Amino acid sequence: QVQLVESGGGLVQPGGSLRLSCAVSGFTLGYYVTGWFRQAPGKEREGVSCISMSDGSTYYADSAKGRFTISRDNAKKTVYLQMNSLKPEDTGVYYCAAVQRAPWSLAQWGLKPTIYPYWGQGIQATVSS
Hints:
By secondary structure, the protein is mainly beta.
């Protein structure tokens, strides 16, 4: 049974940092891609970043480039999202998700929520003064 559990959210001031964690279980990590998504009130869920659990290749949304870093620790079965220089528009519920790796491009498909069958419950991150 695939499970993903997020942690690390909270309230932070603009310019601050948060590190989100996603603990995964129930599948062989090397065959999957894990993504981070977020959803603000009244908006659609959007992809933030994704990582191939086998080779560590990554892809970022333009809004995340230069500020966010995705990483994985396969031994701990955990994926991280380090978020720096946070802005109020980064506020939302953050979800991690997993999909079995296939011969598709991370850039083309990795940030599309519709291809991910497995999701965590989400965690709130609020950027406000």
